[in-house]
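User: Second chain of the day. Same drill as before.
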Amino acid sequence: MALKILYFASLREALDTCGEDLPLPAGIGTVAELREYLAARGGAWSKLVESQSLRAAVNQQMVDAAARIVDGDEIAFFPPVTGG
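Assistant: Same format as last time:
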C-alpha cells in the first residue's frame, strides 16, 4: 500500500517536512495504526501519538483515528488551530 501523507502547521515544522509518499507494510489499515507506525520513527515523530488533539483527514474529509485507509489515499495530519 502506498499513501500520500501531508503534515501541516507546527507539526510540519517539528518534522521538518511538508509531506511524503510512503509505501506501507501490510497490516496498517486505520489512521491510528498509521500514526503508531510513523511515531515508531522516534524523535519528533512521536508527536503523532503523544498529542490527543492531533487532527486527521483522509482524502480531504475529517476523520477519527478508527477511519480506514486504503491504497492511494491522501492522509493529512495537523494540530488544532485557532483564529482571531
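The mean pLDDT is 92.

User: Great, on to the next one.
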